[in-house]
Amino acid sequence: MPGLRGPSDYSREPARHPCLRINAKAPFNAEPPRSMLITTYVTPVDLFYKRNHGPIPIVDDIERYSVSVRGLIENPKMLSMKDIWDLPKYDVTATLQCAGNRRTAMSKVRTVKGVGWDIAAIGNAVWGGAKLADVLELVGIPKFTSTTQSGGKHVEFVSVDMCKEENGGPYKASIPLSQASNPEADVLLAYEMNGEPLNRDHGYPLRVIVPGVIGARSVKWLDSINIIAEPCQGFFMQKDYKMFPPSVNWDNIEWSTRRPIMDFPIQCAICSLEDINVIKHGKITVSGYAAAGGGRGVERVDISVDGGKTWVEASRYQKPGIPYVSDDENNDKWAWVLFEAKVDAPHSTEIVAKAVDTAANVQPESVEEIWNLRGVLNTSWHKVQVRVGHSAM
Ligand SMILES: Nc1nc2c(c(=O)[nH]1)N[C@H]1C(S)=C(S)[C@@H](COP(=O)(O)O)O[C@H]1N2
Ligand SMILES: [Mo]
Questions:
Q1: Whose CA is nearest to atom 4 of ligand 1?
Q2: What is the pLDDT of residues 114-139, one digit of tens each?
Q3: Would you say the CB of residue 171 lies under 6 angstroms from ligand 1?
Q4: Which of 3, 21, 323, 356 could bond 64 through an S-S bridge, CB–CB 3.0 to 4.6 Å?
Q5: How far apart are CA 167 and CA 145, in angstroms?
Q6: Contacts of residue 328, Cβ cutoff 8 Å, sequence gap at least 6
């Protein structure tokens, strides 16, 4: 029996937290309630969103598990968990966000294809593992390499889960070799999440973490690493997770004209309020998360209580009680920033949040202008309705 295998049915799924909102049962896709998402800076493993495309793989014998590293390199190798554990260990606090986060709101404009997510297909964890740049050195690829001698330019990660989009084949994705071999990009082969061994849902025994990039590239249940000349040709790189303008529909789509999405764009959402709220007259707390992709900082989070006419600035923090400064070198550069503002809502209104990153990128105002048929990257201003009533609900 192999060390790691992908079952063909859902009879051996792990137990999950009862608070999760299940968006699809098989494959299992679920997110925590809004209010629970931001009670902690580091998201508890149980509450962290779970995004799968097939049944959860099974480890029969961890002693027999190994990752093969092969392709356009001189010395292909099979690495056991011990080989990975023997490398220097890094703990990287990084936010993972599904490109489909906030898809449900986009689907209200026009139908989109995909799992309906509210605003919690995102989480922040401390990932422990070896740097991919160190792993690549074991097979003779020096740090900061963009092309190997035999023409390798991309690093492909292949799993074992059986995905229907791949006609029963495994999930796979790739990133450029220049990013993979750059130790400062902090790409990890992670075996721990929040100080515990990874659990099955999140990729046990070993997964990739690509900080600052959409979750789809952080392949779980890693089986092999291939050094290849062209980006991975798998479904999730070539026929999914690409950005299209609103004019593209299922009749005129040409997948090959677009790049696979990598860095996620500046995002923020209010988690302290549901879509529609009835509140008592007075101060309300508007709090949530902001996340800038690509290792950029969160420069500002703006809150409006009049639908976007006037704005106040929210306070930002990563560590409780310590104000966040976007260019501080001690920040967790790959992690989200929580925000809070106390505002007055004297009458029924729309409360809006939008964030600005350190490259001055801003979230687009309307979801219509970024609508796309797959419902990805909905980063439009996050809006909630507040009705001021006589009694709080
Ligand atoms: N093997 C494998 N890796 C995968 C996936 C998958 O279905 N199979 N889903 C991807 C997507 S789309 C996301 S958003 C993240 C979700 O990671 P999580 O379930 O640990 O939150 O895993 C990525 N890695
Ligand atoms: Mo995703």
A1: 219
A2: 999 999 999 999 999 999 999 999 99
A3: yes
A4: 3
A5: 34
A6: none
Residues with Cβ within 8 Å of residue 325, at least 6 apart in sequence:
331
CA-nearest of 158, 310, 299 to 234 is 158
Does residue 50's CB lie within 6 angstroms of at least one atom of ligand 1? yes
DSSP label at residue 260: B
- Give me ligand 1 centre to Cα 97, in Å: 10
Beta bridge partners of 320: none
- C-alpha torsion 314→319→324→327, nearest 10: -150
Ranges of each domain in the chain:
267-389
Q: What is the C-alpha separation between 87 and 79, in angstroms, rounded? A: 11
Q: What whole-number distance in Å separates Cα of residue 29 and Cα of residue 172? A: 18
Give the end-to-end CA distance of the chain in Å, rounded to a whole number.
56
**Among the bound ligands, the one closest to the CA of 220:** 1
- 198, with CB counted inside 10 A (0-12, 13-18, 19+), is buried
pLDDT tens for each residue of 22-39: 999 999 999 999 999 999
283: confidence class by pLDDT, cuts 50, 70, 90:
confident
- In residues, how long is the chain? 393
Strand partners, 385: 276, 350
Find where tokens 């093969």 sit.
68
Contact 204, 59 (CB under 8 A): yes
pLDDT digits (tens, 9 = 90+) for 39-90: 999 999 999 999 999 999 999 999 999 999 999 998 899 999 999 999 999 9
pLDDT for residue 392 is more than 80: no
- Top-level class of domain 267-389: mainly beta
Q: Is the pLDDT of residue 1 over 80?
A: no
Report how far ligand 1's centroid is from the alpha carbon of 54 (Å): 10
Rama region for 174: left / alpha / beta (φ>0; ψ in -120 to 50; rest): beta
Ligand 1 close to Cβ of residue 157 (< 6 A): no
- The answer, yes or no, to whether residue 6 has pLDDT greater than 90, is yes
